[in-house]
Design brief:
Length: 304
């Protein structure tokens, strides 16, 4: 975990030195029990959180624009960690669809034995098999190209701030890899985050236009929110996101593979299971508007 964040900070600092604390070292502490590691970085005086919309959006977009994948491909040279999840991003792929399928599929596989919810498994399978290729393959087809951008990997309120000394926005707690720039704004969708304020995404789009096909942007944004919300569901004890993420995937499946969704869920029902989700979530910016408790917000700050 420490090495992954060190490598992430090092990569971002090489492109945008003011946007992250400079990383100095990481390693294992001398004590044997418990096994403990450290990460040593530059001290930055944390001010307002989250960072201001205009400044955060401009600097994040600048990182996305100016970063260059060392292989020209999607992925990373190390498996960085999103909280407790070692991300499946440590391979290099020409296809963003392949990279994201591996990444999302790994998170889904971690969730399945924890949630033990047959309907959840159904929508996970269809999301990977039908929704991901439908939304991501067009980004690199019909003459379109997609630049692998260096990502924060977990850009939410608690991982951004204003520097009290310089007045600049900066980021930390990164779990980077090279991917579609829009992935970093997937975590801005959740109403539990103050980055869901539309001023953030409006400012970001001013600096980095939406990828074509532009009409798929909202569905892609919903798709990119899944890894963060599934992580919240399985690792935050008081999480209310279980139903939200089920409904979000159901929404995507109803958009792109409705007949298969109906057929697969009927199989589950015929086996005696009861449907676990309402499936009535709307494919809009403020999807999954479940109320978020102060306890959940605090626990996410601590764990994510």
């Amino acid at each position: 975990m420490c090495e992954g964040e060190y490598e992430s900070l090092k990569a971002i600092h090489a492109v945008s030195p003011s946007f992250v604390p400079e990383p100095y070292a990481w390693g294992r502490c001398r004590q044997e029990d418990p096994e403990t590691y450290f990460l040593l970085v530059e001290f930055r005086d944390v001010g307002e959180q989250p960072a201001e919309p205009a400044k955060l959006a401009a600097q994040l977009a600048d990182l996305h624009h100016r970063s260059v994948s060392p292989t020209g491909k999607f992925g990373f040279h190390y498996a960085t960690c999103h909280a407790k999840i070692a991300q499946a991003v440590d391979t290099w792929e020409d296809s963003w669809s392949v990279t994201y399928t591996k990444h999302l599929g790994h998170v889904m596989n971690l969730a399945s034995p924890i949630l033990k919810w047959p309907e959840f498994d159904v929508v996970c399978k269809l999301t990977l098999q039908r929704v991901v290729p439908r939304l991501l393959l067009p980004l690199q087809s019909n003459g379109r190209t997609l630049k692998p951008c260096l990502l924060h990997g977990d850009c939410w309120d608690g991982n951004t701030a204003m520097d009290m000394r310089t007045g600049d926005a900066f980021i930390f707690d990164v779990c980077s890899f090279y991917g579609h720039n829009e992935y970093d704004t997937g975590n801005w969708r959740a109403p539990r985050h103050r980055l869901s304020n539309k001023s953030y995404i409006r400012n970001y789009k001013r600096h980095f236009p939406v990828s074509e096909p532009a009409e798929d942007w909202d569905a892609r944004n919903l798709l990119y929110s899944l890894t963060f919300n599934i992580g919240n569901t399985i690792y935050i004890p008081s999480s209310s996101q279980k139903q939200v993420v089920y409904d979000d995937m159901t929404t995507l499946c109803r958009m792109f593979c409705p007949d298969e969704l109906t057929k697969e869920l009927e199989k589950v029902q015929s086996g005696g299971a009861q449907l676990g989700g309402s499936g009535e979530a709307q494919a809009c910016w403020a999807v999954g508007g479940a109320e978020i408790s102060d306890e959940e917000e605090a626990e996410e700050e601590e764990e994510m």
